[in-house]
Amino acid sequence: MIDWRLTEFLLTHALIGIVAGAATSFALIWYNIAGLGDLIARSDMKVIAVVLLVFGFALTFGQASIATAVLFKAEERDE
Fold this sequence. Notes:
The chain is mainly α and 79 residues long. The chain has helices at residues 5-30, 36-42, 46-78. 84% of the residues lie in helices and 0% in strands.
């Protein structure tokens, strides 16, 4: 029988990070932080700019979330 606990653990934390990254990137655009919203609004390639921004943030936050979860899981085991 296959034990899916580790896969579920990693996917759960990856999805949490991806959602947080996407929300952060949309907040940067919505609140026009550093003129990012205006820059995208004036661009000829709005969709590509938003997709690249969201993808980059989602990937980075997802990886950071997994790394943090694994490190904290290792600390729990040591105790």
